[in-house]
Design brief:
6 strands, six-stranded mixed beta sheet, alpha/beta, disordered C terminus, Rossmann fold, about 20% strand
């Protein structure tokens, strides 16, 4: 992708993940997603021989899937700075990814690559951070910077909107696309404890347009005050939202269920509902 269109600094992302490992990675979120992914895959009534784990920042997904017995092998596949995947066309039965695709500069392009890498009737199952992730932190920073510095700076990534994901899967050529989301509320003693966890997840600011100057101490303290004032529970602990958007889709295959052709129904909807059919252009009268 041309650098002018890039939102995320992927070289900085790698550096932040390395720093997280040195600090002692915080894994509660990726472990939760990995367990949910294994549960979702267990509900699929088939086995998978060759799988790829694309971009997931730990081995949590591979360990969880191995425990299900549903996949013979799952190889780790990195997302390069150019976001080209080293995957041969039609080489996979299964592609999974956890908490990685939200940092893609070209998500539609990555989905197209994954679709091409899947064999017919191969499955994509991915989880990424959704648009409500860290909404409390974003609002608190916005209010503090507006008050203390007279303007805003890009601090938290523009995460995926669940309403757009189904269309992206269809554009990439996936059949039977399904998108759903869940919200996890994690509680902290202070906003600073949340920010420490984000550092240990490698999830701090990697926006190319981020402000390079250090954050003023006064702004940071004001942010913490606003956070505590707006988002504290009765016991004083602070809420932090993590929205997880789940994507699944299949590489097309002739065996898959297809929508009926217009006019091919064998029963009228009005009969099924027990109502009177009104021809187009007429208004239904009152009984």
């Amino acid at each position: 992708m041309p650098s002018g269109l890039a939102i995320f600094d992927r070289a900085l992302l790698r550096a932040r993940l390395r720093r997280a490992g040195q600090l002692g990675a915080e894994s509660f979120l990726i472990d939760r997603v990995a367990a949910d992914m294994a549960e979702r895959l267990s509900a699929v009534l088939r086995q998978f021989d060759h799988g790829a784990d694309v971009g997931t920042p730990s081995d949590a997904v591979r360990r969880a899937l191995a425990a299900t017995g549903k996949v013979t092998s799952v190889a780790a596949v990195a997302i390069g700075d150019d976001e080209a995947l080293d995957l041969a066309a039609g080489s996979l039965d299964l592609a999974v990814s956890a908490l990685a695709l939200q940092f893609a500069n070209d998500l539609p392009g990555l989905l197209i690559q994954l679709r091409r890498a899947l064999k017919p009737d191969g499955l994509l199952l991915a989880a990424l951070a959704g648009g409500d992730t860290l909404i409390e932190l974003r609002q608190s920073f916005a209010a503090a910077e507006s008050e203390m510095e007279g303007g805003l700076s890009p601090r938290v990534a523009p995460f995926a909107d669940v309403r757009d994901m189904g269309a992206l899967l269809q554009r990439a050529g996936f059949a039977l696309p399904v998108v759903d989301s869940e919200r996890l509320a994690v509680r902290y003693d202070t906003a600073f404890a949340l920010m420490q966890d984000l550092r240990r997840m490698g999830a701090t600011n990697i926006l190319r347009e981020r402000r390079r100057a250090p954050l003023k101490r006064s702004t940071l303290l004001r942010m913490a005050e606003i956070y505590a004032g707006r988002f504290a529970d009765p016991d004083g602990r602070l809420r932090a939202t993590f929205e997880i958007v789940w994507l699944s889709g299949w590489a097309p295959h002739e065996s898959q269920q297809k929508p009926l052709r217009p006019g091919s129904a064998r029963a009228r909807l009005a009969d099924a509902l027990g109502t009177k059919e009104v021809p187009a252009g007429e208004k239904a009268g009152r009984d």
